[in-house]
Write a structure and sequence with these properties.
The complex is a heterodimer of chains A (about 160) and B (about 400). In chain A, the strands form 2 sheets. In chain A, strands 4-5-6-8-7 form a 5-stranded mixed β-barrel. Chain A has a 3-stranded antiparallel β-sheet with strand order 2-1-3. The two termini of chain A are about 20 Å apart. In chain A, about 10% of the residues lie in helices and about 30% in strands. Chain A has one domain. Chain A has about 160 residues and is mainly β. In chain A, strand 1 and strand 2 form a beta hairpin. Chain B is of the alpha/beta class and about 400 residues long. Chain B has one domain: Thiolase/Chalcone synthase (Peroxisomal Thiolase, Chain A, domain 1, 3-Layer(aba) Sandwich). Helix content of chain B is about 35%, strand content about 20%. Chain B contains 15 helices and 11 strands. In chain B, strands 3-2-4-7-1-8-11-10-9 form a 9-stranded mixed β-sheet. A two-stranded antiparallel sheet of chain B has the order 5-6. In chain B, helix 8 packs across helix 12 and helix 11 packs across helix 12. Chain B is globular and about 55 Å long. The chains are: A mainly beta (about 160), B alpha/beta (about 400). The interface between A and B is large, with 52 and 50 residues.
Chain lengths: ~160, ~400
Amino acid sequence: MSAADQPGAGSAGRDAAILRDEASTPFFDAAADGRLLIRRCAACGHWIAPYLRMGVTLDRCPACTSDRLDWAEASGRGTLVTWTVVHQAGRRTPDDEQDAHPVGVVELEEGPWLTARLDADGTDLRAGLELEVAFVRPGGGEPVPVFAPAWRPDRPPG
Amino acid sequence: MLDRELSGAAAIAGLGITEVGKVYGRSTAEFATDAVLRAVADAGLQVTDIDGLLTSNGMTGGGSFMLPDTLGLRDLRLNVTLSAAGATASAAIQYACMAVASGMCEAVVYVHADAPLTDRGVSSAAAYAGAASGRPPAGFRGVARSNGLVGANPLYALAARRHMERYGTTTEEFGAIAVAQRAWAAGSPLATMRTPITIGDHQASRWIAEPLRLLDCCLVSNGGVAFVVTSADRARTLRQPPVFVWGWGQGHPGYSMERGCEFGLVSGAGISGANALRMAGIPLADIDVCELYDCYTFTVLITLEDYGFCAKGEGGPFAASGALGPGGSLPTNTGGGQLSGYYLWGVTPLSEAVIQARGQGGDRQAPRHDVVLVSGNGGVLDFHGTVVLAAHPK
């Protein structure tokens, strides 16, 4: 269980509950089962991230312009492309360092890049690091993907 | 008309800079009006000589709806508000030149003004909202907010980190850019931050979004800057030394954000710069001064690489060599740039380029300043524009 999962972790920003909307319902339903759904073009088979930066979604396939996008299950495996550790903007409080958290761009096995939280305690982050998806529920709301190293002493593969 | 015929056909004949920086109590519209009046006076023209108007919006509007009324501009032949985010200024000058060269207009003013800062304790970061606070919106926008990837800082951090991972670029090399620009700022009366800094100061500045520190990030400023563009022939008859526009280009990569994407590694500067130099008909070695869009230190680094001033991946060592600062081989962001001078969405590098090309840089004047390369960059490396300015006609 990550810090964001713990009751009373706070209501602001990172720990606030996320609500579903119509467009995100299939994604959150699957996430509740521990499955990562992403988009796939029904016309050409191209895989597309469920959301892009700032949470924007695509209505059409960028490879062929078809508007027939299905939901399809991804393997949940990927590699780390890049990451940042976000600090509290404009605040200089003791909570700042505690709140600082890594967020990464993960290249999914299927090809799309997904921005997601990283759970990498005790692991040096580096480009190419192999990751696997899990889900956490900030503030008890909808589950969001969090990627952790695929090989860890405390969590053997398989 | 071939671009080589357009090269040098137009010139920047007037420059107007209001008070810039932490200047409170004036509206965006007031800054815009003030900047236009200063630019027209600088050129030795009357407001009634202006027959084209280009404007751009910052955080607080600034577009052209009321400006013609305020200035008494009648029967304009061009009046458009443009947007290419931080690349707008570099693009606007291109359209101003095309309007003049085509005969559409005789004298075009481009103005950008903004006033996001208030004196009521609102921080720079708050002016550019992005703090992950409060209840997130529903759905995937909520996921993005919850992750903290909101606003420009963390997204540029992702780009910078990727460059570091691929090429071994270091935070100290980013710091070298901040230090060089602050050294230039010491000589600029327009600059907000003029106290010299060291690499140690840079390393001690707090994290914003790792690997970006406070001193990797640009300022937030109030103010307005305007330019008068007219034909090269007419510019020669006016009050100021003409600054001829030799070449321009744009490059917008459209990052796929999937396997094979070059986000963080290559920017639109490659295409944009090559086309601008081809139009100008000069090699890169002819560039005396660079005025590069610097929302972050990293932006300068990747732009230098993509323009070809050093090999891809060598931007860090190039910056750390001291090439960019006073006395260096490639004077860059000679007014302190947007990191230390003032931040007005790309009119900062463009205005400093005009000052340098004219030889009016005072304490910060680069020794050689015949040809100046200017860049604009917008979004998260989504937009790029380049302008080649010169003190001499073609």
